[in-house]
Structure formats: C-alpha cells, structure tokens
C-alpha cells in the first residue's frame, strides 16, 4: 500500500516537490496530501507584481497545479496546519482536520517582516506577498482614487529592496504616487554597491518615485481619513496607504512548536539532504535553513525540492549550494547582480565602468590576475548579464575593461560559455542541455526549448540567451514575409524607403521572386501608402489592395459592404446624426453602434458605395478607415467638460489625436482612447496607445490589446503636457510602423522586441538610437499629406468606374444578394447562392 | 434524341479595361456570374464568381498572384487560393470552382458557358 507524504504549504517550492515526486514515483509508492493556507493552488509568486496588469489570478497559476486527474494527490486549500504531533505522526489543521504521515515536508515559505513602528497595524497598512495582499491593496487604492479629495493620492513603501521597488511599481500602476523609504544608505543594498545604488536612485526618481534613503519610519497616524507618516528626519508624508516590504522571516513556527531545531537567524535546520533532526520530517524552500543559510529566491528552493524528492524516493542527492544572482527590471530599469558582487574575496579586483550620461553602471569583480570572473553588478543596462553570469568561476574571454566598454561584448558570443554553465538558473538548465535539445531533439524555436527543457519558464531573464543559442546552433528563425520575399516586413520597409521604389512590380523584380500573393501585395501596398505614394487606388496600387481597401469599405459575409464614417473621439452633432439616419434609411442599410464609438451601416452593394459616400462627404463626413490596417478610432470619455471627476479635456485630446493620425497605414490596425481620469471610462489601457489624464497632464500607456490575447497597455511616460505627449506618440507610431511584422499589433511587437518596454522607452523617450527627429519628421509629413480617400475616389472618374457590380452590366446589382428582416432591420440571407462546393 | 445547344461567345468588355493582376465580374444569361482575371503575364482566365466556401459572389474581387509559380486568385472572404487554370482550390483540392472558356478577340474579352 502507498505510504503517505504530507506537504505543508502549497507555494512554489511545495508545488515543485509534489510535481517532482509524481513525475519520478513510477511505482506510485506515495500518496500525497497537500495542506495549504492560501485559498488557491500554487501560483507564480515571482511574477506577483504582474498581477497588477490583469487582476486575473489565472495568469499566475502554475501549470498542473490542480492535480485534477491525479488520484494520488489531494489538495486541501485555505486550512493551515496548526500542530504537528511527532509521536503519533499526525498533523492537525485550524479547522480540526487530522492527517497521519509517513513523511512530512515543511514548505511554509516566509512571512513578510513588519517593523514594530507605531501605527503599523492601522487600516491602510499592508504587506506584499500573496494575491490576497494585492487584492487588498488594490481595494484600498481604488477607494483612495474614488475619494477625490485635494492633493495627489500617494502610497509609501517601507523598504527599498527588490520587493519594495516592485511594490512601488505596483502602486504606481494603480495610479498612486509612490514613496520608498529605505533604512540603508542606498536602494537594494543587498544586491548593488554604492555606485550602482546611486545611479539606480536617479533612474527611479526620474520615474516619479520619491526615494528616501538612510531614514526610518518613526510613526504612522490616522489623519482625517488618510494616513500621516513621520520619517526619522521629521519629514511628514500624507498617504493613502502603506506597504511594508522590509524583508522576510522564515515561517518556522510549526518546527519550533514541535521542538525541531531552528537556525540562529530562524529557519528550520536541515542537513544537505533537506532532512531535519527528525528523519521523517523534511523542510524545503524559504522556510529552511540549509548550510547555515536561508535563501529568499526560488531557484535554491527548487533545488531543495529536487533533493528532498530524490531522498524520499530512496536516492542520495544532496544540496549543491545555490546561485543568488538576480536580474530584474524595476520600473523599467535594468538591475543585475551576480556572483561575488561586493568583492568580498580579499584578492578580488573591481573593474568599474560608470557612464552618468547614458545612465549605465557596470562593475565586474575578477580574480587578482584579472582572468577569472567572480561576479558583477549592472544598473541601467544589463544586456551583458545573460552572457557573463554563466562564466562565473571560469576564464574571461577578453580583458575585463574591453567587455564592459560600449559594444565590448561584440567580441564575446554565446560560444564562450562552457557547456556545464547554467543558462537558466531558475530551473538549473545548462547550456549543454539546451544545445542538445536543439541539435538532438530538433527544437527549433524558443517555445519548443521551453517546453522541452523548462529553461526560460520562470523569471524569463534567460530567454534572450535561448534565442542566441538557437542561432549559434545554426537554426534560423525565418522572418520571410511569404514565398515571394525572403525579407521581413521591416526589412522591406527599409528597402523601399532607402531605394524610393514606388511600385510593387519594381520591388518584386529587384528584391523578390514570382508574381506576389494575397500576403505580400497588401503588405507592400501598406508600406507604399505609409511612405506617401499617392492615393491607395492610384495606378497599379489598386491591384495590390485587399478587397476592403479596394472598395474603402468592409466586405461582409454575403459580398456586401459596411460603411463607417469617421466620428473623431465619438463626438457627433445631432445634425450629423440625422444625416447618418437619413442616408441609412434612403439606402436601406442595417445600422449599429460599433464597439469603437461610431456608427456602422451594413448591406451596401459595390455600386451603391459611391452614391452613399457622395451624400456623406457632402455632409462633412470622411472615411473612417474601418477597412484599413490604419488608425481606427480614438475613443473618449466626456472628461472635464461634463464629468464631475474629469481632470483634463479628454474629448478634445481624443479628437486631436484621431485627426492627427487618421489615414496612417500601419502593419496592423491601431486603436487608441483617452480617459479623463483614472476611473478610465474610455478603456484606454486596452488600446495600442492609451492616454489617461492626471492632475498635472497625461499618462501615456502603450501596447494594449483586446482581441484573442488581451493585454493591458504599459505606462511609458507620466504627467506630460500635451505637446510632449504628441511628440512621443508620433515617435511610437512611426517606430512601430517601420519595424513591426505584418499583422503584428503593438502588444506582441513590444513583447517580442529585444529589451522589451525598456528598449522602446530608450528609443522613443531617451532617443538612444538618435532617430527621434527622423520619426517626428516622418509623422509631420504624414499629417501634412493627409487627404480623405473617399473624396479622392469621388473626384476621379477612373477610380469611380471600378465601383461596378459587373463590367458588362454596371448598374445591375448582384442577383445573389438578398435580405430578410430581423428586429425591424434587414439582415443578409445566403439563399440566393446556389451550392457549388463539391466535397 | 439529345439537342446539343450551340454556345456562343459573349463579348464582355475591352481587354484594356482589365488591369494586370486584377479581376472583374461579368453577368451572363440566366443570372450566371463569371470572374475574369488578367495575370501579370497578360493571360486571361475565367472562373465562376461564386466562392464555394462562403457562397458569396466575390471571387472577382480577390487578389491575383502565384503559388509556387501557378497563377491563383485568393478569395477575399476566407483567403483560400484557387488555381486560375483549373479552378481547383490549392488549399483544399477537394473543392473546385467551374472554369469558363475565355479569349480576347480584336481587343475584346469574350467568355462562354462551359
Ligand atoms: C464593427 C465592429 C463590431 C461592432 O459592431 O461593434 C468590428 C467588426 C470587425 N472586427 Fe473588430 N470590430 C469592432 C471593434 C473591435 C474592438 C473594440 C474597440 O475597437 O474598442 C476590438 C478589441 C480591441 C482591439 O482591437 O484590441 C476588436 C477586435 C478585433 C480583432 C482582434 C484583434 C486582435 O489584435 O486580436 C479582429 C481580428 C483581426 O483584426 O485580425 C477584428 C476584426 C473585425 C472584422 C474586421 C472581422 C472581419 O474580418 O469581418 C469585423 C469587420 C468590421 C466591419 O465589417 O465593419 N476585431 N474589434 C467594431 C468596429 C469598431 C469601429 O468603429 O471601427
Ligand atoms: C513580489 C515578489 C517578487 C519575487 N521575485 C523573485 C524573483 O525575481 N526571483 C526569485 O528567485 N524569487 C523571487 N521572489 C521570492 C520567491 O517568490 C520565493 O522564494 C518562493 O516563492 C519561495 O517558495 P516557497 O514555496 O518556499 O514559499 P512560498 O511561496 O511563500 O509558499 C509557502 C506557502 O506556505 C503557506 N503556509 C505557511 N504556513 C502554513 C501552514 N502552517 N499550513 C499550511 N500552509 C502554510 C503559505 O501561505 C504559502 O502559500 C519574490 C517574491 C515576491 C513576494
Ligand atoms: S474617465 Fe471620464 S467619464 Fe469616467 S470618471 Fe473620469 S472623467 Fe468622468
Ligand atoms: S533564469 Fe529564470 S527562467 Fe531561466
């Protein structure tokens, strides 16, 4: 009969243990009972801060965490273990449930440490460890935003370490102004040195986080509905909430209560097989004290889970020690530290490269002969981290100074990394294991390496390396647009721009093969249009367009079209509304309000389109580009004009933006919205670029998406004035238009960009590539050359002539089109069409 | 006894009204619809205008190009490609659309029912 293993705690490490045992226990010799305090199965705590982007706990859940189809695992959630009876080998939970064990594993993690500041337990004070903590913080932030009193809504984070800065970011994403209070002399005192900490502070302050270092919190008091914090120097802060993030303490209470030994600074004492003094009890993860240390990172915890699983199944594995390297993006600032970052080895030498202008600080710690790498610190730009970390303890491929100089790592490739070096420290995957997955198991993409080796599935910092290893093994990830062009869309854009080629035939003759197809023709047509080559139906261009662009209307299922005139910002006069009503009535069109705050009229036949548009253009309407890969709508909320909470004129800005970017052809459609305050009635964060008004100006968010893979947009600049805002949107859009793939919305474009949002910010805010002037000039040209496409058709008999049903019977409507009536309006029926498919 | 109806060529439009790599629709007797295409190489082809997948009369409004060198049109609705010479759907060879004889005589495009 199976023996019983009881696991206390269902955090990341406890879950890893259960998975490992279930994977390896081929004889099914263990039945596992997991007793957990939190109400939901194990989730990705490392990614906890990203919960703020979606507020969907599902996005954090760890694969296989429910064990639904596994009879040997029982999960008991929301009922913590209260006592352990070692004599009778039973545990009892708070609710009184008792469970016998043959082996007991403690995986209870840590608790946040809350310094005993007076007022630390007032309502409005929180910790930052679980999904429930974040939900509570969100509720308080929401109440603060809604209360609408004078002054900015603010939050204080006590502790300027790794988690404190993550918490500050979360507060900022919720619309609060964050203050970070750190007792030590610099931010992240454990990971970075003084030089790095100084730079980190400057970079973080630029992002509107107020940093107070070298000071403690004296007290927190209630103050007319808000909180008042007093710092050691006498500084007073008016706050809406406080988050304590001043370190963690191992959760060893159960061990203490049953008289198991604990370490000097806490943590259940275990040997290098993760076993406590009691041979039937193990402890793993953050609650364990192993080799005299308590680790606060997930990778060592995973290693302990593997060791304990092996021992429980009869093996002899022992804990190898662990890598405590960290690489983070905090509020968009890269920070990395690894190995002996503080040069504690007495013979170590430090090589520092500090560039205050570009905002980068890099330090390498090397042996006294400058040949062996011992550790390092990067702030501002950590691009060398993934290459250098695996080299710790090994020979340096070049002079340390050469490695740090700008472009220095050009001389150093992934080939310099030894096979035994760990590329993914979270999941302990070596370079050798990854290259063998590529060359022996045929993995040919980052996702296939992830599922084969698990590398890259935790913190993600090693993912860029996976791409580099693929190319170093000779696997090309094809970027070809289609069978006719081996170039990517971005490369074609560059070619067309540089050579000024203005027709598809010339482009395919010089740079492609064959005749073209429904993929490359519209893509090239879009590039030609962005670069200003006249009307999209001019000359040969007409033959490149997808039917929607060709008829400047959206084809529907029965071959008829829909008509969507532009209604900038969703603002429309009663007179114009009446015109729409009259036109729809006269042509018998089905009408509907769209999800984009405008009106769609359906059921127009090809030959009717010019007559309909004549009426619309005469009444002052223009094309809404609902058919194009182009700007669709800039939605708005009423804003200051009417709304009692409005901070800025959101309608005015939405109209301005929609008129500015109308007609811009892009890799995919573009959507935007402007909200008048943080209540966000216009849903701006679901858009490619969304603007939310603040007391002092505008916050700009980019990369949002509805659709199949919804994603909230990320903040890129805050509190800017209208002029700066428009400048940055100009750059953002032009950079996207030039470099994205065909049919790639801004969300995946940013996600797949090397360096992600940080790189994007560097390019379009800090002008790191020196192209901002050019991007702005290109947009200025677009704005200047805009003209209404429908007007262009109505003025040109040659273009108009294409709007016919039949070449030999231009006035006769397609006889297969017929309609029926539903809810008082006409809708298509496909009865007119004879069945021809022969299957 | 069977009567063989003599089919006649129907003149549809001047050839230069059809752009290269482009299609137009024509109406024949009995509400029959043909899509007439001119390729980049000035060859003319004619298929039924009805897209078998959506059953809408729209094939003439598809993009003309090639698949591995074969002349094709892609349906504007769900984008399947059809071989202009045979009417066979390249993405699903079980499906075929009828083809029509087509010729250009004295600069005029003519088609007839098969
Ligand atoms: C008409 C409208 C639905 C409605 O009645 O409300 C609509 C209709 C269509 N949408 Fe949409 N979408 C409409 C608002 C939206 C919205 C809401 C919004 O814009 O605020 C979204 C989610 C926001 C977003 O795009 O991120 C939306 C996400 C999509 C997607 C998914 C895009 C994605 O990135 O995954 C598609 C598919 C695609 O483009 O590949 C799509 C595609 C389509 C197509 C083109 C599907 C098709 O091929 O026929 C529909 C044709 C429009 C037509 O014939 O006029 N539609 N569609 C809305 C027109 C808004 C407008 O005024 O222009
Ligand atoms: C915001 C944040 C960011 C982080 N970022 C990183 C990072 O970038 N890299 C990194 O390596 N690490 C990071 N960490 C740390 C990492 O999450 C932890 O090291 C890891 O989760 C430890 O796993 P664990 O299973 O030991 O403990 P936990 O994940 O804390 O799980 C312990 C579980 O046991 C439960 N429990 C406690 N007592 C009992 C009881 N008596 N009965 C039943 N259940 C009990 C707890 O409720 C908890 O669910 C981060 C942590 C946070 C909070
Ligand atoms: S988002 Fe707009 S409508 Fe909503 S509360 Fe703010 S100002 Fe008012
Ligand atoms: S190093 Fe964290 S996922 Fe690979």
Report what the structure shows.
With 839 residues, chain A is an alpha/beta fold. In chain A, 29% of the residues lie in helices and 21% in strands. Chain A has 7 domains: 3-111 and 250-312, FAD/NAD(P)-binding domain; 125-246, 3-Layer(bba) Sandwich (FAD/NAD(P)-binding domain), CATH 3.50.50; 325-412, FAD/NAD-linked reductase, C-terminal dimerisation domain (Enolase-like, domain 1); 417-477, BFD-like [2Fe-2S]-binding domain (Arc Repressor Mutant, subunit A, Orthogonal Bundle); 489-545, no CATH class; 547-623 and 807-839, Alpha-Beta Plaits (2-Layer Sandwich), CATH 3.30.70; 628-787, Sulfite Reductase Hemoprotein, domain 1, CATH 3.30.413. In chain A, the strands form 11 sheets. A 5-stranded parallel sheet of chain A has the order 3-2-1-7-19, with helices on one face. In chain A, strands 9-16-10-11-12 form a 5-stranded parallel sheet, covered by helices on one side. Chain A has a 5-stranded antiparallel sheet with strand order 21-22-25-24-23. Chain B is an all-beta fold. Helices cover 0% and strands 39% of the residues of chain B. Chain B has strands at residues 10-14, 22-27, 33-38, 44-48, 63-67, 70-74, 81-83, 99-100, 102-105, 108-111. In chain B, β2 and β3 (33-38) form a beta hairpin. Chain B is globular and about 35 Å long. At the A-B interface, α15 of A face β1, β2, β5 and β6 of B. Flavin-adenine dinucleotide binds at residues 8-14, 35-38, 45-46, 48-49, 80-81, 107-110, 128-129, 163, 166, 251, 254, 285-286, 296-299, 301, 459 of chain A.
